[in-house]
Amino acid sequence: MLYVLRTGCAWRHLPHDFTVSWSAAHKHFLRWCRNGTWARILTTVRGEIRTRAGRSRRPTAAVVDSSSVKASPVAGPRGFDGAKKVDGVKRHVLVDSAGVLVAAVVTAADVQDRAAFPKLVRKAKRIAPTISHVWVDKGYTGQGVMAAAAKAGVTVDVVSGPKPGHGFIVQPRRWVVERTNGWINHCRRIDRHYETTLTAHEGFVYLSQIALLLRRLDRSQLFDTL
Prior knowledge:
By secondary structure, the protein is of the alpha/beta class. Helix content is about 40%, strand content about 20%.
């Protein structure tokens, strides 16, 4: 599974000298996507990372953002993001203040950020009930976002500023989640959308961050396939 994630190859192209067939790997991957195994593993590993850093296992503050990904010509849900001019899917991610993924929701690219926010914050609260404050950008304004945040017991802080006339200006807290999006795009399997289901793409997002955190936990090991 990590080999497919990192290299971006098709399941059928897995090396034949592996101890498991490509069909068995694919079957178990989809099963663990559907039953939430990847999210549970990520929660455990993230808690260990935070504990070693001297922080509580569960985060209390988070940052939210989305990124659109072009889709390959495969069957399945997809849409057109008019703002980014991208035909594909959109990843909505919620990370802690250190940029470690907490929850992710994958939708068609034409789904607005504010429309996906209620589902994302509900999922995040199930994983980390201690989250009480979220930083967002201008795409998450509106009554729907505020109502969802109030229902979840979360305060929302919109981080925005004037557009720079020249050059690039780093917005407070925004760089944290943008860095996470960069980490996710290091994996070739998800730098484009190749899956026929959104659940499979979401599972690969979780798996990419599990691999990242495992490298942090034990830097003495050579995780060549991670």
